[in-house]
Amino acid sequence: MVSTKKTIVILALFLIAITALRLTVLHSQKPIEHPRVTGGVLDLRGWTLPHKQTIPLTGEWEFYPSRLVEPGSTDRFEARSIQVPGKWEPAFRDQAPSSFRFGTYRLRILLDDDEDVRPSLKLRFNRVNNASAVYVNGRLAAQEGSPSEEREEHRAGNLPFSIALDGDEPTIELLVHASSHAGPGGITQAVRFGTVDAINSRTLLSTSLQIGLCVVFLIHGIYAAMLFFFGVANRGLLYFALVMLLAILIVLVADDRLLFVWFPLPYEFTTKIWVLSYTGVVAFLPPLLNRMFPGCGKPGLLRSFAAYCVVYALFVLLTPASYVMSALFVLTSILIISTILSGLVLKNAIRKSKDVMYVLIGIAAIGANIVWTIIESRTTLEMMHYPFDLAIAVLAFAAFWFRRFFQAKREAVLLADKLQQANREKDRFLVNTSHELRNPLHGIMNITQSVLDDPVRPVPEEHKRRLEIQVAVARRMSLMLDDLIDVTRLRESTVRLQVGSVRIRPVVDGILEMLRFMLDGKPIALLIDVPEDFPAVQADENRLVQILFNLLHNAIKFTDEGSISVYVERTDATAHIHILDTGIGMDENTRQRIFLPYEQGDSERAYAVGGFGLGLSIAKQLVELHGGDLSVASVPGEGSRFTVALPLAEEMDRAESPEASRNLIAGESADFAADRPEVVHLPASSADSEHPKVLVVDDDSINLAILADILRTAPYRVATAMNAADAFAKLETATYDLIITDVMMPQMSGYEFTRRIRERFSMTELPILLLTARSRSEDVLAGFQAGANDYVTKPVDFWELRSRVRALIELKLSIEGRLRMEAAWLQAQIRPHFLYNTINSIAALGTMDIKKMQRLLEEFSNYLRTSFDFHNTDRLVSIDRELELVKSYLFIERERFGDRLDAQWELEADLTFLLPPLAIQTLVENAVNHGILKRASGGTIRIRTARSGDRIVVSVSDNGVGMSEEDIARALEAPADVSEGIGLRNTDRRLKQLYGSGIRIESVPGQGTTVSFRLPR
Q1: Which DSSP letter does residue 296 get?
Q2: DSSP code per residue over 492-538
Q3: Common-topology check for domains 500-647 and 837-1016
Q4: Is the CATH number 3.30.559.30 carried by domain 837-1016?
Q5: In what order do the strands lie in the sheet with 55-56?
Q6: Are 361 and 7 in contact (CB under 8 A)?
Q7: 420-442 burial, b for 16+ CB within 10 Å, e for fewer?
Q8: 3-state secondary structure 339-364
Q9: Sequence ranges of the domains in the chain
Q10: Cβ(956)–Cβ(942) below 8 Å
Q11: pLDDT per residue as tens digits for the range 839-855
Q12: pTM of the full predicted structure?
């Protein structure tokens, strides 16, 4: 707000300054003392014309009203004196009023008789309204329009013109015919006289000043229009640009009327253009000020004024120029109303805005220009075109706009700082909230999942689906929380990449395994077209997984049916990974915004699938961190194709790069591992059988070497495999206590590899430890669903890996030891009736056959000694020791049951091997007690060992009562609290732990049973 007193003082000083400037310019243009026209004669004899200045032919000219006097006939008519320049109406006082007037001006210029003294001369007529013809010494020298004594023959035309004089005669007679059909007529501006150079210089200077002022107006009009169309959508800028355009028209149609000199137009058009340009400037000024100072104007008054101006503009366009000139008082009224409305706006603006002073200065400059124009039109004062008032006015308005612009810029900067601060606070809040929500969210997921998996109190089917939806929603929310944390880290530039050589196919296989549980039953085919030998890319494996996971997850969300394909292309040193889906697609507008944070498009489907719209933004930022690019092409209704461009890895042996090891082992352990010598792996069949055996599976040789080296210090016996097929081959020939496998492997992912292992081994029989680049919930869930026991995130911490490996191996060995103890305990639990009957048999033989009694006593003693031997808890025993126990048992049973039991031995010669203790004994006891002795006639038991390729087959057959399929299943799968079948189950589990396969039962009810198992040679 500016005080009224201060405003008045500033405006007064400004008006004094511009008035002083104008007076200074006016004084510099003041013509030299020269003779004046008197009685129609200008006597220049004895007076020398200046070469650089012109003189105005002002004074008393002869005038012949209502006559167009021909040259040479002036003496026949009476002349009157008339002041030139000036209005000619007083000369027609004695005639009837009329809008059409005509007459003749006459002037004689007397020069020196000496031709050598007379220079080349020239005349300049600025305005003769509104048709004229000039005769010099009886000859027609120039004509504008067609002056006539008849209205019908009159043709208007009033452009400035110049006449060159020969100077051959000492007397120059000028006759000026003039006629006017509207408005003031006659010579209304002074005729200039002087040398050719002086007239030309004055004309050129005037023209230059007008063009310069137009250039100033044009520049300001252009920047205002540009700001409006490309920047600030303030209609005031548009009004200002229009005012500048109309001001250019005013300059070009006033004074020298340059526009019509360059582009000759009929008088009708020139008049209307002149009136409309003035009307436009006056009409746009109040709304311009109202836009510059919003709320300071009266909207109703402004609308009424605009309507008034439009009506007048239509009147000017549709009526003849003569009527327009007769109704110029309307233009005057528009000027007055515009001044009043502008004053009201400025009066209110003074109270509200400090910037109003610039506009007041501009208005004051315009007002000063108008006042001086009126003074010039009412007096004989004359000066060349004066552009400085209007130029200052434009500069004042420009200063207003620039001040507003910079003020808005400062406010924008301050607001941006506040917004950035608020954004940081928001990010901090979101991160804190995400961390705080994790615990209760995972609590909800865990409780819900435990209810779903409760075998004691199963969930009814009508509620099960609801709980599954709840778990799915919680998982989705967990992904959203992870995205919030990631986007904040990216914005704060705290993401650090561990770039290395990464193969694409294993990464894609692993991601699709993770995403299968998200399909929610959709009929979508997940297709992979990535060759195994496709070159590796230079990337952070963890972040590459995140990038492709986000893209594939997005494809699944927006695809209801069809397929999602992943394929690759190579262009020079760049790999292009394409994710193509047959989903809903997106339009061009959505495609332009899809990578912005929190952007999901306008489709209702985007809101239906949920999420924050961060996944694609995170993916793009991560790709750009790798020096790559992420782009999308899409057709609405047909699907989308996202393309990830990443640089290919350099062709080098990764085993030679210490960075490869540092990407696997973190912290101090990376330094430890990098300094170790090359590892020589111990074979799985090493004689050092006391050390647990670990199988490490990874497609990276350097990773295998480092992991094996770490594990050997434990120590463990380590075998390595480069892929799943190699690992399966090793499992066929050896037994292991733990498998460590990478998730991302070629041909078969770690998830699928784990799933295949679980088809043969339970989690306790052969633990599996996954090495994964990420520890997000979807990765962990995929691993546990596949059957992994535990996971370690890369880069691996040395001590964490050692601890987890030790825990899993100890668990496995503990379970295995319990099974051996169970077998030994079962063998030690000799049934009482067996002891009683055996002792009775020994006592009976004592009275009948001493030798038999001694033999039976020896076998019984051997049986008891072997049954209670601590070697029964060993991992393996020799086949000879096992057969010794079996033979003692069968000898005792044959003595007890006589011909009801027969035994046949089919043992391959020179066949020695190790097997779990009590493995054959358990099968033999089962065959005797539950097969042969169940028949009254008894039967035969056959024990067989033989080679079969790279395996050894051990079988126990009987021709007893046999077993049904249900009996077989119950014997191997019965719960642990059922005593029947414990021996078979125990043997089966121990064989699976050691060799990957258990016992095989083939039986026909009523015909007999064969139980066999296979051992590696």
Answers
A1: S
A2: TT------EEE-HHHHHHHHHHHHGGGSTT--EEEEEE--TTPPPEE
A3: yes
A4: no
A5: 55-56, 192-195, 121-125, 161-165
A6: no
A7: eeeeeeebeebbeebeeebeebe
A8: HHHHHHHHHHHHHHCCCHHHHHHHHH
A9: 41-198, 205-411, 415-495, 500-647, 664-821, 837-1016
A10: yes
A11: 555 555 555 556 666 66
A12: 0.50
> Which CATH code for domain 664-821?
3.40.50.2300
Tell me how far apart the alpha carbons of residues 30 and 36 are, in angstroms, rounded to a whole number: 15
pLDDT above 70 covers a percentage of the chain that reads 85
> How many C-beta neighbours within 10 Å does residue 766 have?
24
DSSP state at residue 68:
-
Ramachandran category for residue 645: left, alpha or beta (phi over 0 → left; psi -120 to 50 → alpha)? beta
| Tokens read off for 952 | 């050894």
pLDDT of residue 645: 94
CATH architecture of 415-495: Orthogonal Bundle (1.10)
Q: Which residues pair with 121 in a beta bridge?
A: 165, 195
DSSP state of 400: H
Structure tokens at 214: 């137009």
Separation CA 694–CA 681 (nearest Å): 11
Contact 954, 915 (CB under 8 A): yes
The burial class, CB within 10 Å (0-12 / 13-18 / 19+), for 1006 is: exposed
CB 27, CB 94: distance < 8 Å: no
**Count of other CB atoms within 10 angstroms of residue 906:** 11
Q: Which DSSP helix (H) or strand (E) runs through 668?
A: helix 668-674
Q: Which two tokens stand for residue 843?
A: 């006592």
Q: Report the C-alpha gap between 833 and 859 in whole angstroms.
A: 17
Cis peptide before 795 (omega within 30 of 0): yes
Q: Each residue of 28-52: b (16+ CB within 10 Å) or e?
A: eeeeeebbebeebbbebeeeebeee
* 325: exposed, middle or buried (Cβ count in 10 Å: 0-12, 13-18, 19+): buried
**CB-based burial label for 471 (10 Å; 0-12, 13-18, 19+):** middle
The closest of 608, 496, 586, 494 to 542, measured between CA atoms, is: 496
- 500-647 maps to which CATH number? 3.30.565.10
DSSP state of 742: E
* pLDDT per residue as tens digits for the range 439-495: 677 777 778 877 887 777 888 887 887 887 787 777 777 777 777 777 777 777 777
Q: Find the radius of gyration of the CA atoms of the chain.
A: 56
**852-879 burial: b if 16+ Cβ within 10 Å, else e:** ebeebbebbebbeebbebeebeebbbeb
| d(C-alpha 360, C-alpha 350), whole Å | 9
Residue pair 393/372 in contact (Cβ under 8 Å)? The answer is no
Positive or negative, the CA dihedral 338, 344, 345, 349 is: positive
- In words, the CATH class of domain 41-198 is mainly beta
Please return the burial class of 456, using the count of CB atoms within 10 Å of its CB with bins 0-12, 13-18 and 19+: exposed
Q: Token pair for residue 330?
A: 């309307």
Written as six digits, the tokens of 683 are 């074979």
Sheet holding 524-529, edge to edge: 524-529, 562-571, 574-581, 639-647, 629-635
pLDDT digits (tens, 9 = 90+) for 795-820: 677 778 888 888 888 877 777 666 55
683 Cβ contact partners less than 8 Å away, ≥ 6 residues apart: 717, 719
β-strands 59-65, 139-144 pairing: unpaired
Q: Which two tokens stand for residue 140?
A: 């027609």
- Scan for tokens 């732990």, then name that residue: 993
Under the phi-then-psi rule, with left for phi > 0, alpha for psi from -120 to 50, and beta for the rest, what region is 456? alpha
The 10 Å Cβ neighbour count of residue 395 is: 17
Find the helix or strand (DSSP H, E) in which 992 lies.
helix 982-995
First to last CA, the chain: 103
Per 3-state DSSP, the chain is made up of helix, strand and coil in percentages (nearest 5) of 50, 20, 30
Angle at which helix 541-557 crosses helix 504-515, to 10 degrees, equals 50
- The distance between the two most distant Cα atoms of the chain, rounded to a whole number of Å, is 194
